[in-house]
């Protein structure tokens, strides 16, 4: 209750309820979307190999790059289109 009634008034405002539900469903939906995406990439298997990712992801070239790192943003954009991140 403290998440939706931070003042401990015993009441939950409509806005507090909407804010709570938005946080709860957004986190779940995003996790489910990522899992579903990996499931497609894995060919419906419950795992994906590092070799699969390495073979398909490009090396990150940013100013903070270290040897062996992969560029998840460009790979995600290639799979799903432009990102707002």
Automatic annotation (TrEMBL):
Q: Which GO molecular function annotations are given, in alphabetical order? A: actin binding; calcium ion binding
Residues covered by the EF-hand domain: 1-27
Q: Which SUPFAM superfamilies match?
A: EF-hand
Cite the InterPro entries for this sequence: EF-hand-dom_pair (IPR011992), EF-hand_Ca_insen (IPR014837), EF_hand_dom (IPR002048)
- What keywords would UniProt list here? Actin-binding, Repeat
Pfam families per record: EFhand_Ca_insen
- SMART domains xrefs: efhand_Ca_insen
What PROSITE patterns does this protein's entry cite?
EF_HAND_2 (PS50222)
Q: What name is this protein filed under?
A: EF-hand domain-containing protein
């Amino acid at each position: 209750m403290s998440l939706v009634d931070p003042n401990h008034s015993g009441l939950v405002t409509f806005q507090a309820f909407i804010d709570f539900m938005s946080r709860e469903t957004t986190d779940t939906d995003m996790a489910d979307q990522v899992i579903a995406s990996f499931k497609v990439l894995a060919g419906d298997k419950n795992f994906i190999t590092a070799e699969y990712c390495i073979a398909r992801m490009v090396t990150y070239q940013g100013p903070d790059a270290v040897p062996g790192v992969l560029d998840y943003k460009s790979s995600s954009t290639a799979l799903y289109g432009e990102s707002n991140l």
